[in-house]
Every structure is written in C-alpha cells, then in structure tokens.
Amino acid sequence: MEIEFKTKEEIKHFQEEKLKIALQYLQEHSPFYKRMFSQYNIDIQKIKTLEDLQKIPFTEKKDLQLYNDDFLCVPREKVIDFITTSGTLGDPVSFAMTDNDLDRLAYNEKISFLCTGAKPTDVVQLMTTLDKRFMAGLAYFLGLRSLGAGIVRVGNGIPELQWDTIRRIKPNTIMCVPSFILHIIKYAEEHGIDYRNSSIKRVVCIGENLREQDFSLNLLGQRIKEKWDVELFSTYASTEMATTFAECEYGCGGHHHPELIVCELIDNEGNIVDNGEVGELVVTTLGVEGMPLLRFKTGDLVSFHTEQCKCGRHSMRVSPVVGRANNLLKYKGTTLYPPAIYDALDNAPYVEHYVVEVSLNENGTDEIVIKISINEKSQHLLVNSDYSLLIKDLKDRFRAKIRVAPEIKICNSNDLRAIIFPDISRKPVKFVDKRHSANG
Length: 440
Hints:
Elements: H1 8-29, H2 31-39, H3 61-66, E1 79-85, E2 93-98, H4 99-115, E3 123-126, H5 135-147, E4 150-153, H6 159-169, E5 173-176, H7 178-190, E6 202-205, H8 219-227, E7 231-238, E8 243-246, E9 254-255, E10 261-266, E11 279-285, E12 296-302, E13 304-305, E14 317-318, E15 323-324, E16 329-331, E17 334-336, H9 338-346, E18 351-360, E19 366-374, H10 388-402, E20 407-410, H11 413-420, E21 431-433, H12 435-438
Parallel strand pairs: 3-4, 3-5, 5-6, 6-7, 18-21, 19-20
Antiparallel strand pairs: 1-2, 7-8, 9-14, 10-11, 11-12, 12-15, 13-14, 16-17, 18-19
Helix pairs in contact: 1-2, 4-5, 6-7, 7-8, 9-10
C-alpha cells in the first residue's frame, strides 16, 4: 500500500519490475500466452517498460471463452475456489483461484477498505451474496477478515432481514449495490423504522455509479443523500481483474493499487489515449497465480486522473465508468451510453423500476424501448388510468438530458422486478441488449 504514496517515477519503476516477473511467469506456465508469444514472435526480455506492452496483442473476453482451460497456469488440484462471470457470447467464463490468489484477493480488499477509511473497529454488514459462484462477496469477507473488522454476512435482498440485523448487531457500515439502498429506505419508511438514527454511518457501494465525471454525486447518489445522510464510497472492480479501485474520503475516483495491476487506456483502434481522455480500460494482473491476464480489454470506458490526490496518494485514479464499449447506442443521430438514460430515469420521481431494452429495427439501426413502472405514491397523478401526461413529462426529461426521446412502455412493477433481479444474476439488470441475438 505504501507504493501509492511514492512518486510517479517510483511507481512506474516498481510496476516495470513487477511486470517482468509476471511476463516470465506467463512464459513458463500459461499455455495461452506461450502460444501467443510464439505466434507473434514476442521476446519477453525486450518488454522492459510499461510502454513496451504495446508490442503485445490484446486479450479479449472471447479468448477466455474459447480457450478457457489454456489460461490456467497451475495443476487443477491447486485450485481452491472456482468462480464464473458472464461473457459477451452468452457462455459463462470460469476462473480458478489458488490459495495464494485468495491471499492476494484478501490483501486487495483490505487495502481498498483502508482507502475508504475503514478500521478494525468497524462492523460491516455485507448485503452481497457469497454464493452463486460470485467472487466479490467472498473477496469482501476475506478483506474485512484480514483487516480485523467485524462482518455480518446477510446477503442481498430481504429488507426486513437487513433492518433486523442492523437493529440486533448495530453495524456502522453496509456494503451493497447503491440502488438497493433506496429499497431499504423505502421499507424503513413504510414500516416506521427510524433509519436516519440507526447505527449505519457509511455505505461502500458496488456495481453502479454514484458520481458524475466531475466526481459530483449523480442523481442516484443525490437521492440517497437527500434521504439518508450517510458517507458514500464508490468502488469499481471485476472478476477478471481480481482488483478493486476504491474511493478515498475525497471521492475523486477509484485509487489504483500499483502492486496488483497495470492499467492502460485505448481508443477504438487500440492506440493509447491522451491523458484525461476517455478510453477502454486494459489491464495486466500482477501476482495472480491461477489465471493471470495480459493486456485484457475490460470493455469499460473510463478516464485516468494522474494528479496527486488530496489524500496524499500519487497513484492514478480511475473515473466513474462512462459506459461499456459494446453498449454504445446510436439513436436518431445521437450517440449515447446507457448511464445517461439511467440518470434521467433516476431523477423522475414517479418511476419505480425501469429496464432499457435495445434491439435492431428493420433498417438495422438501434431501437430503444424503456420499460417503466409507476410507484404507488404517484398513482394519484393519473387521470382515469391515463399515463399520457407522465409519458410526455418523461420524454421531455429525456430530450433535456440526451436530446432524444425513446419509446416508453408502462409495465407491471412485479414483472419488471423479475427482469431486474433474476435469481441467476448477482447485480441488477437494467440494460437488455437484443442486438447481438438478432445478428445471430
């Protein structure tokens, strides 16, 4: 963790030494990368700087799906934990973690929690699943255990159980998807729970943005803070990276841990983008034993902030995710990403649930249908069950926010909940992309 407070030059030199070790390990143990090095005549001894990484081809999710076993660098009997993540082709990607990988995962989460200001005296309620082949829930548990903090493993959903646990055990921190906070606030309001005076003082959030690109709270973050004056921290991670970028108390981006991962940002042609520009995050994992990755394209669009943070760290910071590279939408001449649509929906007080559905029309261009349900307290706004005024208001909000107004369909709340929170998913499903299935 101390490396984050070193100078940029020291951090770069440190990473280049770690990179040499990682490349040598891949050369000796990875069937996939040994084949890549041979096919492209790559001499890893000539990869001496971070800039030299550009001589190596990218690894993509389709590689993990098509050649999954070839990424494993250890005998199967050394694997302790098996996990999966979803891939762009629809088939899950398996990941295997050794005992050393679990220790690395614990260290990653420990220093990430420390970055948010967590202490051994904290008690943290995990509103995330530890099952369903989910890495994150286990990672949080291991990291908090390493930190020495108290842990309450409640799992996701079930607001009644969440509040019963808060009443009984009095944790000071919860960890969850931020949109779920609004659900437990709603439950508290409906059941007379004085949530504002509960033991909870801080929330560490996963899976959804809380901030705009200038680090101000986005509409979701604002709605939470207006209801509940708790400290909010964003984190960003993925299974493939086995690394977390967590905010410090200044909330100016997720801090990079140089001992765990090398990061690059590329444009659509694979070129490194200028400092401060948005690009696709490419990562090279450091210290992973089971399935390390080299120049892996995450698909996430972010920007880097390299000026020293007010917390004293010199390590780079990652912005909130702008969108997914493969989720780019072109609608009526406007280019946008789903988070821009979410912001408009989150700010509409009458919208309870929503799903953004994208398909191709007969002309082969993007068609967007937004399915929403209306919350109970807004039903009085309807005249003879006529939704036309609400739809008009929402379309006006879209035009003001993203300049275009997609089609809107009013749906049953329970039907939308079933789409957003399916049993097999570990995160809320807000975006349904039918374009790839249409293309076969």
